[in-house]
From TrEMBL:
Limits of the Plastocyanin-like domain: 53-166, 208-289, 376-482
Catalysis performed (reactions): 4 Cu(+) + O2 + 4 H(+) = 4 Cu(2+) + 2 H2O
Signal peptide positions (record): 1-28
Protein name: Multicopper oxidase CueO
PANTHER family: BILIRUBIN OXIDASE, CUPREDOXIN SUPERFAMILY PROTEIN
EC number of the protein: 1.16.3.4
Family matches, as Pfam families: Cu-oxidase (PF00394), Cu-oxidase_2 (PF07731), Cu-oxidase_3 (PF07732)
GO molecular function, one term: oxidoreductase activity
Gene3D superfamilies named in the record: Cupredoxins - blue copper proteins
Keywords, in A-Z order: Capsid protein, Cell cycle, Cell division, Metal-binding, Oxidoreductase, Signal, Virion
Subunit structure: Monomer.
Length: 483
């Protein structure tokens, strides 16, 4: 038994569908040890610097791919910032095209948000001030240039951000970076026969979003994570363009959910399966005190508008995301699960809140099939237009948003807020959606409670959009101001 390498994948890669080529039986710990992004600790300096650059990345034993990254060839460092402290950033662009650094999960004013209105021209440096007035969380950052986000993130313009308060020891949580506190960026990719990253979405992928046939974790293929014989914390970031993961452990040990997108829960929730849509993050504890290895797997979820009107939900056979191998030479710092946590579950007062309805639309039929541009994707019938403010709202107000998704599942993301999921298709939110969120998978209809705590002017508005990046680039996005 061994992990399939890229060449062996090629035999399976043909075809129209998005099915993963890794059969569930083909996993075993490989000798390749998973590496973690370098840690860029800005907790005391209160300043960090990023530089967007091109890279030559060898994902496997094939040819090098031309990639993008922040401070490195592909992806970027894990930036650690201190909760409650004002931190400055400097983002320099050495690419030959505009890019940005959007702080997905940081609740900062619109002008510092890094969305499409804060594009950084080639050669320029952008200097935002991040007022980190929020509890600890795993956030991330990525480029956000309208029409180019999918390609730029595919090429590597993404990284992880940790908002920390240095209280993890008191919480009884693992916090040794790369030892028992693991940053895992999940991405699915596709490679050509030379081993070069391949991204050339045709009609099918433009419509449903890109789904690759090869699992890449932290920019690596076929690596295993070495873990201590104790409790291990995984900060899982879905940095894929469109793939929804439904994660589980191969021996069905639990994933103990401790934090959602925007912060800790009040207590761990033991899950057999954890759904993570593009843009979402989850922190889970996994118990390796038995000393037994295990494998993080995902169901191969089919999310396609071709599937008809029933929304997503189909699923192929599971594939390997990441094997874990217990290494007894690693220090065991935490050997028991915490009984409770100090996170506050959201409980916004929505009784008299104004209601806003948003419909995430896809146009079907001939126009959809044959036009490579145009208004295929929209919200409430309008495709994103950078010159149009879709609405404005009041600072510190609360609104109830009812968001409906057409034809398939859409991960809905809102900038500048942390929100509460009130209901999903009329019932109580599933476990993954009980904590504070900034992205939620819409499979039908969700009801959200928004509180707007930071300002965004009409010139630097916040975005709301589908986080299937091909949908976002295609116009399933809008913008609003807060004043
Ligand atoms: Cu993660 Cu508007 O994006
Ligand atoms: Cu965002
Ligand atoms: Cu979508």
């Amino acid at each position: 038994m061994k992990l399939l390498n890229r060449r062996e994948l090629l035999g399976h890669a043909a075809g129209f569908g998005a099915a993963f080529a890794l059969p569930s039986a083909a996993f075993a710990a490989s000798d390749k040890r998973l590496a973690y992004p370098p840690l860029l600790d800005a907790t005391t300096s209160r300043l960090f610097q990023l530089e967007a650059r091109t890279g030559e990345t060898r994902f496997d034993d094939g040819a090098a791919s031309e990639t993008f990254g922040y401070n490195q060839g592909y992806l970027g460092p894990t930036i650690r910032v201190q909760a409650g402290v004002e931190t400055r950033a400097e983002v320099h662009n050495t690419l030959g095209e505009p890019m940005s650094a959007h702080w997905h999960g940081l609740v900062v004013a619109g002008e510092f948000d890094g969305g499409p209105h804060q594009a950084i021209a080639p050669g320029d440096t952008w200097k935002p001030v991040l007022d980190l007035d929020q509890p600890p969380a795993t956030a991330w950052y990525h480029s956000h240039i309208h029409g180019a986000t999918a390609r730029q993130v595919m090429l590597g313009l993404a990284g992880v951000l940790q908002v920390t308060d240095d209280a993890d020891d008191a919480r009884g949580l693992p916090s040794a970076y790369g030892v028992d506190d693991l940053t895992l960026v999940l991405q699915d990719r596709q490679f050509n026969w030379r081993g070069r990253l391949k991204y050339d979405p045709g009609m099918h992928q433009s419509m449903n979003g890109f789904q690759g046939d090869t699992m890449v974790v932290n920019g690596q293929i076929g690596a295993s994570a070495a873990v201590p014989k104790g409790i291990v914390r995984c900060r899982v970031v879905n940095g894929s363009n469109a793939r929804v993961y439904r994660l589980s452990m191969s021996d069905s040990r639990s994933l103990h959910l401790i934090a959602t997108d925007a912060g800790f829960l009040d207590r761990p929730i033991a899950l057999n399966r954890l759904t993570l849509a593009p843009g979402e993050r989850a922190e889970v504890l996994v118990d390796f005190t038995s000393g037994r290895d295990s494998v993080l797997k995902s169901d191969d979820i089919i999310n396609s508008a071709m599937g008809g009107m029933m929304g997503g939900g189909g699923s192929g056979s599971p594939f390997t995301v990441l094997p874990f191998a217990v290494d007894t030479t690693l220090p065991v710092r935490i050997d028991a699960l915490p009984g409770s946590l100090d996170g506050q579950l959201p409980d916004l007062a929505v009784k008299d809140a104004p209601v806003r309805r948003l419909s995430l639309d896809m146009s079907m039929g001939m126009g959809m099939m044959f036009s490579r541009s145009g208004n295929r994707f929209s919200i409430n019938g309008a495709s994103y237009d950078s010159g149009t403010l879709n609405f404005s709202t009041k600072l510190n107000s609360i609104e109830r948003w009812i968001v409906r998704g057409a034809m398939m599942m859409h991960p809905f993301h809102v900038h500048g807020v942390r929100f509460q999921v009130l209901s999903e298709n009329g019932t109580a939110p599933r476990a993954e959606n009980r904590g504070w969120k900034d992205t939620v998978l819409v499979d039908g209809e969700v009801e959200l409670a928004m509180k707007f705590e930071k300002p965004a002017s009409a010139a630097a508005p916040y975005m709301y959009h589908c986080h299937i990046l091909e949908h976002e680039d295609g116009g399933m996005m809008g913008q609003f101001s807060v004043a």
